[in-house]
């Protein structure tokens, strides 16, 4: 969280969610979000396991959705696993 740690930096792409990432994500959400970063990482883990890419981005950035679709590096892309999890 850059509000708490001046050395925090945006990751452009994540291929694996590590324990350290989860440990460093215990801040609460903002008035626009329903959960903190840990909740978002849990959602990203589910998407990645299902073979679905996910992006976490700053909603205050103008035209952020367009920038994501154009691949302009707005936010963090969580890359899905090559092998999807199997249905039960």
Task: Describe what this molecule looks like in 3D.
The mean pLDDT is 84. The chain has helices at 19-23, 37-49, 64-69, and strands spanning 13-14, 54-56, 76-78. A three-stranded mixed sheet has the order 1-3-2, with helices on one face. It has one domain (13-78). The chain is globular, with a radius of gyration of 14 Å. It has 88 residues and is α+β, with helices and mostly antiparallel strands. The chain has three helices and three strands, in the order βααβαβ.
Radius of gyration: 14 Å
Note the quaternary state here: single chain
Pattern of helices and strands: EHHEHE
- Tell me the domain tally: 1
The global form is: globular
Mean pLDDT: 84
How many β-strand stretches? 3
Strand content: 5-15%
Question: What's the quick description here?
Answer:
This protein has 88 residues and is α+β, with helices and mostly antiparallel strands. 27% of the residues lie in helices and 9% in strands.
């Amino acid at each position: 969280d850059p509000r708490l740690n001046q050395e925090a930096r945006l990751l452009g792409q994540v291929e694996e969610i590590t324990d350290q990432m989860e440990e460093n994500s215990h801040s609460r959400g903002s008035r626009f979000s329903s959960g903190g970063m840990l909740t978002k990482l849990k959602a990203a883990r589910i998407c990645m396991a299902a073979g679905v890419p996910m992006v976490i981005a700053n909603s205050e950035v103008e035209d952020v959705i367009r920038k994501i679709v154009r691949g302009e590096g707005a936010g963090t892309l969580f890359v899905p696993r090559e092998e999807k999890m199997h249905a039960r």
